[in-house]
Task: structure prediction
Amino acid sequence: DGIGKCPEPPCCAELRNRPVPPVCAIGSLPSAQFKSGSLSLTATATAILNSVAQQMNANPACNVRVNGYYDASNKRSQQLSWDRVNTVIKYLVEKQGISESRLIFNLSGGGDVNTVDMMGTTESGPNTVPAPFPNLQKSK
Result:
């Protein structure tokens, strides 16, 4: 009758048995803003991080890249950026129960030095990196 009697070609069986890569339904997330020179999370930043945690909990296939910005010519700016990314990651891990392995630590030159951006991804990466200038670390 021509329906379902032919053997399946090998290429189709391979495609059917191939694992489906995880999909992340989280795209760009709101940014956490810091006051100039500060490491303290504002009430607004805390609310944003609570929302990020909710989205991460609803999307277990997603990791989040946490990106801080610095002025490449300024050592203090680089260290402050590093401290701020750590502040965001620490809050999500300690206060929201997000697994540290789902957070990707990232620093880059350029951008708003008072902002930490977050983006959903299926990539993995380091959740911490060594401090660029530990002697310049600020405490909360």
